C-alpha cells in the first residue's frame, strides 16, 4: 500500500517534495529535483549490488542439493519439511570422511567466490570519508582502550565526546583540514567513476 502525495515545501516555494507513505507507516521524503552526488552514488551502488556475486553453498547445502532430487523421485508425496528432516538426519549420521568431499567442494567454491567478490568490490564507488569528530575518535580510541579497558563502547563514546568538546579550536581545525582533504579526494574519485 504505497500512497504518493505531493507536498509544497514551506522553505522552498519553487521545489516540490515527494512523500511516500509505506504500509509499515514509515515515510520517505525526497526532493523532486536534480539528484545530489550522494543520491547518484547510492543509486549506482544499488544498481551494482543487483549484480553482487551470491555466496556459495556450504557443505551441508551442497549435500542437500544433491540428495533432494533423489529423495523427491523416490518419495514424490513427501512434503519439503519432511524431506529436510530426513536429509538432515542423513547428514548428521555421515562420518567426517563421508562429509569431506562436500566440505572440500564448499571450500573451493568459497575461495573462488572470494576472488570474484574482491573484483566486484573494486567496481563499487568509494565510501564517503568520515567527519572530523569520527577522525578524532578513531585517533584516540587506542589510548582510551589502554586507559579504560573495562569500559564498554557507550561509556568510551561519552568520554570521546567530552574530550572533543574540550578540544581547542586549533586541534579541531586540524581534524577539519584532514576531513576537507579526504572529501576533495573522494569528490575527485567520484568524478572519475
TrEMBL record:
Domain HMG box: 53-121, 126-193
Superkingdom field: Eukaryota
A GO cellular component entry from the record: nucleus
Alphabetical keyword list: DNA-binding, Nucleus
GO molecular function: DNA binding
Residues of the DNA-binding region: 53-121, 126-193
Xref: PROSITE patterns: HMG_BOX_2
Protein's UniProt name: Similar to Saccharomyces cerevisiae YMR072W ABF2 Mitochondrial DNA-binding protein involved in mitochondrial DNA replication and recombination
Organism the protein comes from: Maudiozyma barnettii
Lineage: Eukaryota, Fungi, Dikarya, Ascomycota, Saccharomycotina
